[in-house]
Amino acid sequence: MNMKTLLTKSNLILIGILLIIGLLRLFPHPPNLTPVIALSVLAAAWFPKGKTQYLVPLTIMLLTDAVIGFHSLMPVVYGSLLVAGTCGRLLRHQTDTTQSLLAGASSSIVFFILSNFGVWAMSPLYPKTVAGLVSCFTMAIPFFHNTVLATTTVVVGASLVVKVLGVLPSQETAISQDI
């Protein structure tokens, strides 16, 4: 996607929606009740080229982390977000509520598995044993419902907003840009 294609009215509206979603991280919230996974899911759904799909959510995460604070597990979190975001391909060229729920829930599960495996592998909090891995995942379960709630709510809500605004790229246009 070149700069001219990126700066279309529709794309600027989509990027604006993602920026608003990302800024929600800056407000007080319960643990894991932020729509960061939704950023990656929606970028994968809305933009046909990989560079934009990854660059937009990573940029928003870096900007908000600059305010919130950087941490040693950022590579794990960012990598998990990008992989989980590929679930957004389920929404490519559509705004179906069922598909939105599926993409939100599946991306939350992928993020949970990858990020907690990364916490276990990279942090000194848990012994590097099967029992330590089980303990890490067990300790993360109470936070999972907030992750699913935030992700699915924002993915469904944002999908409905783009449908109402009529800014979702048409399937023909997006496919031709992929070639």
Please bin the fraction of helical residues. over 70%
Q: Determine the mean pLDDT.
A: 88
- The number of distinct helices, counting runs of at least 4 residues, comes to 8
Biggest beta-sheet profile: none
Low-confidence stretches: 171-179
Quickly give the structural class.
mainly alpha
Strand content: under 5%
Q: What general outline do the C-alpha atoms trace?
A: globular
Radius of gyration (Å): 17 Å
Tell me the number of strands: 0
How many domain modules? 1
Q: How do the SSEs run, as a string of H and E? A: HHHHHHHH
Span of the ends, CA to CA = 11 Å
Write the layout of secondary structure elements.
Elements: H1 3-6, H2 9-23, H3 36-46, H4 50-68, H5 74-85, H6 97-122, H7 130-165, H8 171-178
Helix pairs in contact: 2-3, 2-4, 3-4, 3-5, 3-7, 5-6, 6-7
In brief, what are we looking at here?
The protein is mostly helical and 179 residues long. It is 73% helix and 0% strand. It has one domain (8-168).
Properties at a glance:
mainly alpha; globular; 73% helix; 179 residues
